[in-house]
Amino acid sequence: MTGLYQVGLDLDLIIPSGDVAAFATNLAPFDNLTVGDGLGFSAVFDPSVGLGSYSATYSLYLSDQNVGASLSRYEYPLTLHLQGTVVQGADAVPEPGSFALLILGLGGVIAVQRHKR
């Protein structure tokens, strides 16, 4: 125990569902996370899974540190929803400025050709 009436936090269970193959996470059970401490987790969407929309749900079940009688412990459910979409990329279209420079350049070449004649 970290102090009077204070206990650590445990992440006892992680239940993934949905398109979990489209996401990479580093979620992992832990125990005895004390007051003032923290843990960082990340989730990354993998766009190489192909075109479409993907969603995954991770149900996390947290509880008080394993001290005392089981009846005195509390459980804290937490649900994490992840979504990602892969869309078809647009074909390359020249910028208007680039197109204008091309027209001016061609116009200059034509003008020089005419001037030489």
Question: Gyration radius, to the nearest Å?
Answer: 29 Å
Helix content: 10-25%
Count of domain modules = 1
In total, the number of strands is 6
* Sheet with most strands: strand arrangement: 3-1-5-6
Oligomer: single chain
Order of helices and strands: EEEEEEH
Distance between the termini: 96 Å
Low-confidence stretches: none
* Count of alpha and pi helical runs: 1
Largest sheet data: 4 strands, antiparallel
Structural class: alpha+beta
What is the residue-mean pLDDT, rounded to a whole number? 83
Observed structural traits:
117 residues, alpha+beta, four-stranded antiparallel sheet, two-stranded antiparallel sheet, 1 helix, 18% helix, rod-shaped
Fold topology:
Layout: E1 9-18, E2 23-25, E3 30-33, E4 43-45, E5 52-64, E6 75-86, H1 96-116
Antiparallel strand pairs: 1-3, 1-5, 2-4, 5-6
